[in-house]
Amino acid sequence: MKQELDKCVLVIDEAMPRGLAANTAAILGITWGRLRPELVGEDVTDAAGAIHPGIIRTPVPVLSGRPETFQTLRRQLAELEFADVAAVDFTDLAQSCRTYGEFIEKMARTGPGELRYLGMALLGPRHQVDRLTGSLPLLR
């Protein structure tokens, strides 16, 4: 990831309680770390010699969205103009499942229009991510 060229943002449903919002952000972050390990910096050592695992190399704004925000983002991400922007999403369907197997089964029977998005992480060229999310407020 070229920090000056790429941008990563999280968009979280503004209506969720804090704990669920934090859980959604954590899940999205873990998924990004698996999909894009180059986002994570090298381990660092403090003055006492203790090693601390690397963290993401760039700031990650956490923005606020509404249900219609996520539907709009999904539509825009399908456009050729935003082909270089990658997205990870987390839905109410995923949150309701107790096992990953249950998630797989339920998702296979669910149409895209039936999903309610709780959060989305976007990564791509800064100008494109800004065009998609620049008007969204920070999550409070």
Automatic annotation (TrEMBL):
InterPro entries: DUF2000, Pep_tRNA_hydro_II_dom_sf, UCP033763. It holds the Pfam family DUF2000. This is DUF2000 domain-containing protein. It comes from Dysosmobacter welbionis.
